[in-house]
Specification:
Blueprint: H1 3-20, H2 28-38, H3 45-68, H4 74-98, H5 102-125, H6 129-135, H7 142-159, H8 164-174, H9 179-204, H10 207-215, H11 217-241, H12 244-267
Helix pairs in contact: 1-2, 1-11, 2-3, 3-9, 3-11, 4-7, 4-9, 5-8, 5-12, 7-8, 8-9
């Protein structure tokens, strides 16, 4: 890989982390494409492990900033993790079983997930303020929250994402959190789930893939540093400068762009 390509990928990782951090997302939906299309990596266990690592870095960089401002509901996070962590382990098993069929399944599931998140996000954006206040404080729908979080955990491992596109709509729908608390809580789901998924993926990677990761440690370490710095600055910027409607519009815009990318790949246009 040339120095120029490395620099472009590094800039891309920084910008992805900066843009996704205020939205409660880890950036995995774009980390995989930038490594796949930019670095020429195949969609396999190695790229999933690296994307999850970058996603984990983003979640910590942004999640800690949101915690300082009080934008986290710990009770909701603890409830959801009962489903999310087992889901992540199941997702690793699915990746191992899919083998060479992972690419098509990956992109199909990604597109389905993105379309669902777009629908849920649009519906929440059209809820009137009085109606939104009326649902705040309602009892959490524990079973639905855990099942939704379990789906997020599975998709996190299978698609190499933080699954904020699932967690944010889930906690808003079943725990009735406002946008900023939903974002902070989503990031804390990732902070717990992604390390579990990373370790599980590394445990089943073939030795040659581990050797490739070891040989790229300087490049990958630089990407992680850029992801953390991008997430920290993006989170601070989002908390200080962006209104809740602006954050949700940004969330929706990224979903649409990623959905278009995977649609092009699957249809061949």
């Amino acid at each position: 890989m040339s120095i120029e390509v490395m620099l472009i990928i590094g800039l891309g990782v920084f910008l992805i982390a900066f843009a996704f951090a205020p939205l409660g997302m880890g950036g995995g939906m774009l980390f995989v494409p930038i490594l796949h299309y930019g670095a020429g990596w195949a969609i396999d266990g190695r790229i999933i492990a690296v994307s999850l690592t970058l996603t984990a870095v983003v979640s910590y960089g942004s999640g800690l900033a949101h915690r300082r401002k009080g934008f986290v509901d710990d009770a909701v996070v603890k409830t959801g993790l009962v489903g999310a962590i087992p889901g992540a382990l199941i997702g690793v098993m699915i990746v191992t079983l899919l083998g060479s069929h992972l690419d098509t399944v990956f992109k199909t599931l990604s597109l389905a997930m993105v379309l669902w998140a777009i629908i849920k996000t649009i519906s929440k954006m059209h809820v009137e303020e009085d109606e939104r206040k009326a649902v705040l404080g309602r009892p959490v729908k524990v079973f639905a929250l855990r099942m939704g979080a379990a789906v997020g955990g599975v998709l996190s491992s299978v698609l190499a994402i933080g699954a904020g596109v699932v967690y944010v709509p889930i906690v808003r729908t079943f725990a009735y959190l406002g946008p900023r608390q939903a974002i902070g809580s989503s990031l804390h789901f990732m902070m717990a789930v992604t390390p579990v998924a990373i370790l599980a993926h590394l445990a089943v990677l073939p030795s040659e893939a581990i050797q490739q990761l070891n040989s790229d440690w300087k490049f990958l370490g630089g990407l992680a540093a850029l992801a953390f710095f991008g997430a920290r600055t993006g989170a601070v910027f989002g908390i200080k400068r962006l209104s809740e409607p602006a954050i949700m519009r940004g969330f929706l815009t990224i979903l649409v762009l990623v959905g278009v990318r995977y649609t092009i790949d699957l249809t061949g246009f």
